[in-house]
Amino acid sequence: MQKINMIKSEYLRGLVAKGMREGLRDHFSYRDIKLTNKFIPNAEGSTHVELGNTKIVVGIKMGVDSPMPDRPTEGNLQVSAELLPLASAEYEVGPPSPDAVEFARVVDRGIRAAGVVDLDSLFIEEDKVWTVFVDVYVLNFDGNLFDAATLGAVSALNNTKMPRYEDGKVIRENMTGKLKINNVVTSCTWAKIDNKLLLDPTSSEESIMDSRLTIANDKDNIRAMQKGLHGPFTAKEVEEIIDKTFEKSKNLRQIIEKTKE
Fold this sequence. Notes:
The chain is an alpha+beta fold. The protein contains five helices and 14 strands. Strands 1, 2, 3, 4, 5 and 6 form a six-stranded mixed beta sheet that branches. It has a four-stranded antiparallel beta sheet with strand order 12-11-13-14. Strands 7-10 form a two-stranded antiparallel sheet. The chain starts with 5 loop residues before the first helix and ends with a helix. The mean pLDDT is about 95.
């Protein structure tokens, strides 16, 4: 989490108290969102995400592996995340940090719980299934990685091509069609600062927030929730967040749909 000085902190809190924030947004608005597909030529699917100044690349790679023992006819889904040092002074080279582990798990949970990927369609033959690798790379950090990465991952999955598998080999030069997708999920992340709720916090706002709540949902259902930090949310606040999340997610799904080939 980005550290800011006391003067900047008091300035931000003063804006929030007045119902304002930096960038002339209201408390319930996203920054500008832009998705660019086919960003990585050698990936089966990829999307570059710009959420304000937060920039993320998601790449999809298909591999052949053994199924999970308790799901012998289903393919596998694996989400990983890299907080690259070039993205923020707070990120360091080395094994995944707790923040990176949480980041990947939150994105994975929403996609998995919503059944976005049709895992049954990834069965090849006994003891052989496709594994979908979803790799998330943070290029520039300015807050709200969860929503940006979920947008990028779902958009990239929506545009993923399936390689051919013949004679024990994956043939990537000859695609057989598109990855089968059953659902679309998005997430909305909320920050609580001095009893005020803000959607899509920037890195500066995240540095002073008391608590955070991310809700992943599809058109009809909440699929996953993740709370961060020690501050509480009241039941009334959670109800408000849920209502606003379903409202805001309509536009997020439309943004994903526009990128679908």
